[in-house]
Amino acid sequence: MTAPPGIPFFPYTQLFLSKESELLAVMADVCRRGAYILQKDSLEFEKSLAEFTGARHAFGVANGTDAIIIGLKAAGIGPGDEVILPSHTYIATAAAVHMVGGIPVLAECGADHMLDPGDIAHRVTSKTKAVMPVHINGRTCDMSAIGRVADRHGLMIVEDAAQGLGSRFDGRSAGTFGRFGSISFYPAKLLGCFGDGGAILTNDDTMAEQILLLRDHGRNAEGRVVAWGYNSRLDNLQAAVLGHKLKTFREDIDRRRFVAELYQKGLGDLDELDLPPAPNADSCHFDVYQNYEVEADRRDELKAYLGQRGIGTIIQWGGTPVHQFRELGFTVDLPRTDRFFERCLMLPMNVAITDAEVAYVVASVRAFYAA
Ligand SMILES: *Cc1c(COP(=O)(O)O)cnc(C)c1O
Prior knowledge:
This protein is α/β, with parallel strands linked by helices and 371 residues long. The chain has twelve helices and 14 strands. It folds into two domains: 16-246, Type I PLP-dependent aspartate aminotransferase-like (Major domain) (Aspartate Aminotransferase, domain 2, 3-Layer(aba) Sandwich); 249-370, Aspartate Aminotransferase, domain 1 (Alpha-Beta Complex), CATH 3.90.1150.10. It has a four-stranded mixed sheet with strand order 1-10-9-6. The protein has a four-stranded parallel sheet with strand order 3-2-4-5, sandwiched between helices. A three-stranded antiparallel sheet has the order 8-7-12, with no helix packed on it.
């Protein structure tokens, strides 16, 4: 089998070039109107995003990390409050809790790589205020199991849905189960913009008011300052691009699910790999494959081998789960999460990869284990 010219892990330039003229037209339209901050494109995008997710409100903010910080502030999480979250997440999830004065309490991931509902209860103390499931890799956590634990212990649910836009559990969108859900539009996220961007989803009108104040200097609808606030707005240029991309986002999701199906068919029988759940494995979950993360025997050798064959792969977050950042004061031991991070590897998963390229990745992985 001859090698294609190279399969990048994520084709940043190609995603622009394949739609260059329409994207430039969207941007030119915004710039010709001089419409940069909180203009109609932002408002329209927020409306479309709310409709798409089924959330009552959606508000653009500067990035996905700010979305969590502002969401937590609006929800009243503050100094000394403990928030339980998985160690299998980006540092931003824990950092947001720290930045509002709270204490991130880290928990194990389960077999599907999500926050393990069974590991929440014994981490609850008298200071625990909330649990923050993270819908990692485009899969919504088992929200009925997490909901039961949260109810039993009187915990608020807040969601990091940075990687979950479009995924569902029991028909309901990631980010719409809790007091709020955060979304990230970082370029490599499911719905990416050309820079930083984020959004907060909420079904709660009081939360909505707080969020609007917090993201814009505490200014109310009349422009009067009535509270302390940040400057954290999704800029209008990014919002216009996102609004344009959202129109075809369902097709993007279909494509990602199809690529996942190809990986499943091509690699599902290998004993050396544990694949993520297949697209139709479980009727409760609708997964959108932000990433295609496998667990692999001889992971580092596999990564090197694929690299030699021109295939870009990534060990997420440099192979470091949050609890291993001892410099940040974490002391908890999470052996299941440690084990996962020794084996995890992300294969190329994006809307630009072709069927032939996926076949080449599959053949290469198989060749590695056959050798
Ligand atoms: C990307 C990401 C964030 C942060 O989003 P930014 O837009 O980069 O600030 C938070 N949590 C998770 C799980 C993420 O993947």
